[in-house]
Design goal:
The chain is an alpha/beta fold. It has 9 helices and 6 strands; from the N terminus they run βαααααβαβαβαββα. A 6-stranded parallel beta sheet has the order 3-2-1-4-5-6. The protein starts with a strand and ends with a helix.
Length: about 240
């Protein structure tokens, strides 16, 4: 059965993670320093430290209620991110840390046009001519992935940018994929996921999707169809 809807992961598939981390350090320093005080080095260091805390917070929150509750977590973690960085830098927190965090995030994503893998943007453009419907399926919130795609100049090729906050689900079980397919109104047997994480692909397969493991090193695909790059997927779906 032909694929009607392709869901694409972001970090590791579209986004080069090492380049993305550098973009966040740079963007935080650019945005926060002039507005709140402190040096670029202080803000970059503070962001690295709070980033480590974020992953611990997210793991705890994601498993607290079976993967539900991402929207409230995003607001809570936005506030903690700004307040904790301000404490580490030694400056006062803004009056509305959530609004400040939102503005900072949008600044960072808008300046992240250099974080895509070299083949990713051309591959997405080619896939858009082959697959009727494109979506993302990422652990990042919709605001972030929407911003990255706009920076890459390909946002218009995607119908919806999931971001589990659109369905209030963390990407931690098959329910995430069931819910985004339901929201997109597409049948599992006509859906496919390309991701670089076999665990996510296992949950997607459990939800009924066809799966492609993007593995640039050519290692064991663990039962998923293996593609060495996003560009190579265009040959599989053509």
């Amino acid at each position: 059965m032909p694929v009607e809807a392709l869901f694409v992961d972001s970090a590791g598939v579209l986004l080069d993670v090492s380049a993305l981390l550098k973009a966040w350090q740079r963007g935080v320093a650019e945005f926060c320093g002039p507005r709140l005080g402190g040096s670029a080095e202080q803000w970059a260091k503070a962001n690295r430290l709070v980033e480590q805390r974020y992953f611990a917070w997210a793991r705890e929150a994601a498993h607290a209620d079976g993967g539900r509750g991402l929207r409230s977590f995003v607001r809570w973690s936005d506030e903690r991110w700004i307040k904790d960085m301000c404490e580490l830098v030694g400056v006062g927190s803004p009056a509305d840390p959530i609004a400040f965090a939102d503005a900072c995030t949008r600044h960072i994503t808008a300046g992240a046009g250099d974080t895509a893998y070299p083949d990713a943007v051309p591959a997405v453009r080619a896939l858009a001519t082959q697959v009727p419907r494109l979506f993302t399926a990422t652990s990042q919130d919709e605001r972030q992935i929407d911003g990255y795609l706009r920076a890459f100049g390909i946002r218009e090729l995607f119908e919806r940018t999931y971001g589990g906050d659109l369905v209030d689900r963390f990407k931690v079980n098959a329910a995430f994929f069931t819910d985004i397919m339901a929201d997109a109104d597409v049948a599992p047997e006509r859906s496919a996921l390309v991701d670089d994480n076999p665990r996510y692909l296992g949950w997607a397969r459990e939800a009924g999707m066809k799966t492609y493991l993007l593995e640039r090193r050519g290692e064991d695909p663990e039962g998923h169809e293996l593609v060495p790059s996003l560009a190579a997927l265009t040959d599989r779906l053509g």
